[in-house]
Amino acid sequence: MSLTLFYTSVSSSVQIKKSQDKIKAVLESLMIPFIMVDIAQSSEDRETMRRICGNPTALPPQLAHGDVYCGDFAAFENAIEEERLEEFLKQ
């Protein structure tokens, strides 16, 4: 199983873009391996993200470890603040 960052390459929301960029930058700086899945390229990937999240209207960015939901951007930031990122990412 690997860590997956669900993101979108097409968004008019500056907040979504900033959130996606921050998650990517943090994971890369900590050398945590992950794959990126662009939900804008496939409705199947979008539905997979929403199924894993358990929310039919979930928006990116979302993180999952295999089929286990980790959380959204707010949860990611909280995990960093509380110094429990590894636990949050289900590593």
Automatic annotation (TrEMBL):
Superkingdom of this protein's organism: Eukaryota
Similarity comment: family membership: Belongs to the SH3BGR family.
Name this protein carries in UniProt: SH3 domain binding glutamate-rich protein like 3
GO cellular component assignments: cytoplasm
Organism from which the protein derives: Amphiprion percula (Orange clownfish)
Gene3D superfamilies membership: Glutaredoxin
